[in-house]
Design a protein that fits this description.
single chain, mainly alpha, 83% helix, elongated
Length: 162
């Protein structure tokens, strides 16, 4: 659902930039990001609501079931951030022609923030799977900050047609 939304935003942004309508593109930014956030919240609420029933479909031990439900809750907590980031990176930044920034942001946040935190969380702090997942979600917040700065500056807009 979130990927589909981001693809739709990308099509609209590409069309607006290609038509030379930069002002309309800038007006579309906030609406697309807010709707991306709302989409993430909506999906998160669905995941939270169905998690216990979904886990019951599997014949697993109580301890594994509890861990699965906790993990799904952590995933749900991060979904609004991830949804916002997908709308920003795929829908605006990449569609605006700023593919290098998108690539460096994705790689940098993963390898500078996410992977080291997962490594430290497991090996040094002895965190559980849901805790490690939540800790690595810090990369989503880091991405969000850089995305917002790039989008507000308008530097992501590159008319590839002219």
């Amino acid at each position: 659902m979130v990927q589909g939304y981001a693809s739709a935003v990308a099509i609209i942004v590409g069309h607006l930039i290609g038509a030379g309508r930069e002002k309309e593109t800038r007006n579309f930014e906030n609406a697309s990001l807010i709707f991306g956030l709302i989409t993430g919240l909506f999906v998160a609420l669905i995941v939270i609501a169905i998690s216990p029933s979904f886990v019951k479909l599997f014949n697993i031990e109580t301890e594994v079931s509890t861990l699965a439900i906790k993990s799904l809750f952590m995933i749900s907590f991060l979904l609004p951030f991830q949804s916002f980031n997908i709308a920003a990176i795929v829908g605006l930044i990449r569609a605006g022609g700023d593919t290098s920034f998108a690539m460096y942001l994705e790689l940098g946040s993963m390898w500078i923030v996410g992977v080291p935190l997962a490594f430290i969380g497991v090996l040094s702090w002895g965190l559980t799977l849901p805790q490690v997942y939540l800790l690595t979600g810090t990369e989503e917040v880091v991405k969000l900050l850089f995305e917002l700065k790039r989008i507000k500056s308008g530097k992501y807009i590159h008319n590839l047609i002219s």
